[in-house]
Structure formats: structure tokens, C-alpha cells
Amino acid sequence: MNNSVSLKGTKEGYQLIIQSSASFESILEELKELTMQLKKDSAAGHEITFFVKTGKRELTNEEKAQLTEIIEDDHFKVHSFEAEVISVEKALKWHIESAPTLEAKTVRSGQIVEAEGDLLLIGGVHPGGTVRATGSIFIIGELRGIAHAGYGGKESAIVVGNFRYNAQVRIGDNVHVIEQDEDSEELKNDVEFVYVNDLHIIEVSPLQKLKTVRPEIGKYAGGLM
């Protein structure tokens, strides 16, 4: 055995440690021998869980499938694959999602502004205009059109803005229509946020409650660390 794979017992099951520098062929060969021996020694009917750790090696989906096929049977199950690195594709996706898109413009009727991840809009949204993002939307300006956060189904997204005008806010598949009497002298100037509560209903709350409702907001600075 060249120690391309090794086992470490835990309370939850086994850590299956893959040497990142080993060839995949040697990993498959040693894994077959190791699992055959384990299956001989294990108690019948007792399920064993494996946590596969690959260190500084990111396995492809095909490689994961090959390892899973060798390990799993009626009693051996793969719980997860964990690597200390991520692919460039995943890193770029995470970067896009964690770094807000900044737009400084007025969104006029018929125009649509879209963003992957969060969107910070410095400018107004006219009636008939739409801003939408897969993440949250932060508006510094007048919202008179449509703001669609969580576009694609992310219900944890929020919309932050001054909701003093007639407008429409969407989060995921949820819709909230803001109706204001714009001739009223009591139009509010407070910044608020809109979110989907635990009952899957859109709710408008003062900005002061944001950290209580969505404590994860603001815990990242964006960029690749």
C-alpha cells in the first residue's frame, strides 16, 4: 500500500483521507482494497458513514461518482466530500455573489437593470422601470417601479429603500405592492427594508431591525480573500 488513502475513526463514522498528490488510479486501487477489507471486518447490518477529505485536491463530479461507487453498498454510505481548495469557477461564482454590483443611473420606463448577487443602485427607478438581482437590492433614490430581489428563488434576499411612492417589490416568487398617497403631507422619509418572514409573507420593517432579521447581512466585504 502506498498510503494514497487512509482512515481515521470518529464518533460520526470514518474520515477517508485522500492524498492530494497521489494519482487517481492509485487512489482507486487502494480504495478498493481498503473497502473490501472493511466490509469483511464490519458487523453485518451496521451502517458506516464516510466523510471523504481530499485536502488540496478538488475532485470532479465524475471522480466523486467513481469513489462513491467503490465505497457504497447497503451498509457503507458517503456523507460528504470536503476539500481545502475550490475550483476557479466556484471562486469566481462566490466572488460575483459576495461583491455587490454598483449602478449609478436612473432606470426609466421600459428599462431593466439586472445583477448577479447583490445590487446597489444609486439613482431612481421610474414607473415601468425594473431592477432585479439574484441577491439583495439596496436603493439610494426613489423607487417608483419594480424591485425584484432573490430573482431565481432566493427568499432570504431583501430590498432596502425609502418606500414613499407607489411601487412593487418582489422577493423570489413573492409580490408586495406599495400604495402611497403621494399628495399627502405625511409621506415618510425613513429607510426601510422588505423581506420574507417565517410565514413566507413579505413584510416591511424599519432599518433598525435589519441586523435582527438578517444578521448575516454585512458580514462579508466582497472580493477574494
TrEMBL record:
Domain Septum formation inhibitor MinC C-terminal: 105-198
Stretches assigned to coiled coil: none
Domain Septum site-determining protein MinC N-terminal stretches: 5-81
Domain of life according to the entry: Bacteria
Keyword vocabulary terms for this entry: Cell cycle, Cell division, Septation
Keyword rRNA-binding among UniProt keywords: no
Cell cycle among keywords: yes
InterPro entries: CAP/MinC_C (IPR016098), MinC (IPR013033), MinC_C_sf (IPR036145), MinC_N_1 (IPR055219), Septum_form_inhib_MinC_C (IPR005526)
Record note on quaternary structure: Interacts with MinD and FtsZ.
Main function: Cell division inhibitor that blocks the formation of polar Z ring septums. Rapidly oscillates between the poles of the cell to destabilize FtsZ filaments that have formed before they mature into polar Z rings. Prevents FtsZ polymerization.
Stored HAMAP family: MinC
Family membership noted in the UniProt record: Belongs to the MinC family.
Name of protein: Probable septum site-determining protein MinC
Top-level taxonomy: Bacteria, Bacillati, Bacillota, Bacilli, Lactobacillales
